């Protein structure tokens, strides 16, 4: 059971633009909710908050804070859970190090992040920090499977106001490159456990056996995978693609998930940095090591470490001149694709490139065709097929396109995102074995030093829940429904063995198709091009990729998606869209005091959360609030009150004023609850009558730098002053 003092709705405290927006929006939500007797509390799952909670013994009593993530992890296992989760930082090492340094500068006596731990103490500190890296939040909170789709109002608006799409031509040189051998896809093995088991992972070498991980427990029916990527094959592939890119006259780009895949993808990213600068590493390897260079930290960190070594800097420049032009994160500032591992996230970068007609920004600040390098071939065919489709058929028309909804298997750390503790960079040639407690060798691979080996699993109960959720959704919509599963892939083959019997037992096998990702991509694009709709039923990684790909094509952004997680024990988790562009938004706010973050995802999640609360607690006032939120969201769209991208024009804070105004008006106009109508009528009147004063006060602060007191750990008072600059609005809202 939840604690007696648990608020009716828990709103997560996160990072970057979504958290700044919360400083403006949350006071409005709390004031409106209180009128219906609904309490709204917060839990801190931000990167800074997680760091502080991890090292209490280093901090003063005043600096300490509870482990809110752990508390939320328990709450989501209860029927009472009602959580609105905003996008949080999934930290790469550079982000983690930067956050630690910022906190230290603010007086938090935290230990440094040990990049090369040697003592037992350093190893222990490193292990605690590693628990914060990557997707540390989502596996804890996602005790249910994902139902993500465009809200009807959002989809209707996008069709009535189609966004700009780049032109595709049949002679575009843009393509996807991925490994044909030696990658995770080609080396994968999988098995379903008949009974509960505990496993250990060992590396057998000529010098004996090393235990990489022990005590890995699985319940009966778990699908357990193992695979590895050959470092030798990876390096050869990268070298070949660099040369091919130069010959083709396109941009070289690497698309990874170095935040979520916090062990494997940073290593792969490091291989790309090292291969790109191969002549430099060959000539100055010892010196680079002495300077503390770690290729996995990116070229930005490398350049900072060698800036006092003119000979190396000159060698880097000479190497760059021999390479093809690189896809840029920020052409004006010279920030390349390989600068920071967390700067180019595949699920955001590839859809944006496809939306723009296959064009990426080059160092000349112009758009060019691009070689999109995605080393592992597991999901690269999705993007490859999308590019092939648009080359042949031209750009998608958002005004007439149907929609792709997604049901994603993610509960209880399902699939690759659960692989972090069982992912290893192999220290020596040998054989990796997964050995069960009865001595059975479940999986084994012959590996070489530097290979990346990983195991992942998906439990039976979440898989069954996922299939049943798909059956419910198909019945509710009648849409074409496709399981994105490849019978030639080991993991997917095991899932198919579980999916088919459930569909047959429920008598609905004829209503579903099973296709490999490439074929499912083409089928889905063909379907939405005709103006029809489809449901993609996918595993965890594809869930992440597709709920950016299709929304970015259909809506221009994935931040406006409705994301409902039906928790397996009866609670609800309501996610608010993607946060990939949040860093750029914060930068603009700090430079110009303009926040272009769009809170539409938060509005959608709030409406669903209130409706869920009404059903769970039989709270009709909450239901009235929720219906009014939906009306306010429609008002934002109908009257184009979303934030502008340009300074001097309405921003996030303006959209919150309009949301409050439309929400109050909807509550004043409704006839289901007279008390609420009477309460909100004067608020609605005051907000309408004060429009000029409020919008004027909001506009007056733009165009100057804004002081937040930090980036990862902002000062609450300074942030409130920046995000709530209208005294008139504050006086009305409270």
List the total number of helices: 27
Determine the N-to-C terminus distance.
33 Å
Give the CA-based shape: globular
Mean pLDDT over all positions: 95
Q: Please, could you describe this protein's structure?
A:
With 734 residues, the chain is of the alpha/beta class. It has 27 helices and 24 strands. The strands form five sheets. It has a ten-stranded mixed sheet with strand order 2-1-3-24-23-4-15-22-20-21, with helices on both faces. Strands 5, 10, 13 and 14 form a four-stranded mixed sheet that branches. Strands 6-9-19-16 form a four-stranded antiparallel sheet. Strand 17 (430-436) and strand 18 (441-447) form a beta hairpin. Helix 11 packs antiparallel against helix 13 (310-322) and helix 15 runs parallel beside helix 18 (517-529). It is globular. The model has no long low-confidence stretch (mean pLDDT 95).
Give the SSE map.
Blueprint: E1 9-13, H1 16-34, E2 40-44, H2 47-54, H3 68-75, E3 82-85, H4 93-105, H5 120-130, H6 138-141, E4 144-150, H7 152-160, E5 175-177, H8 184-187, E6 189-192, E7 197-205, E8 208-218, E9 223-229, H9 231-248, E10 251-254, H10 264-276, H11 278-290, H12 299-306, H13 310-322, E11 328-330, E12 335-336, H14 346-355, E13 359-361, E14 367-373, H15 380-393, E15 404-408, E16 423-425, E17 430-436, E18 441-447, E19 452-458, H16 460-477, E20 480-484, H17 490-505, E21 512-515, H18 517-529, E22 534-538, H19 540-555, E23 561-567, E24 572-575, H20 582-592, H21 600-617, H22 620-638, H23 652-669, H24 674-689, H25 691-700, H26 716-723, H27 727-733
Parallel strand pairs: 1-2, 1-3, 3-24, 5-14, 10-14, 15-22, 20-21, 20-22
Antiparallel strand pairs: 4-15, 4-23, 6-9, 7-8, 7-17, 9-19, 11-12, 13-14, 16-19, 17-18, 23-24
Helix pairs in contact: 1-20, 1-23, 1-26, 9-10, 11-13, 14-19, 15-18, 16-17, 21-22, 22-23, 23-24
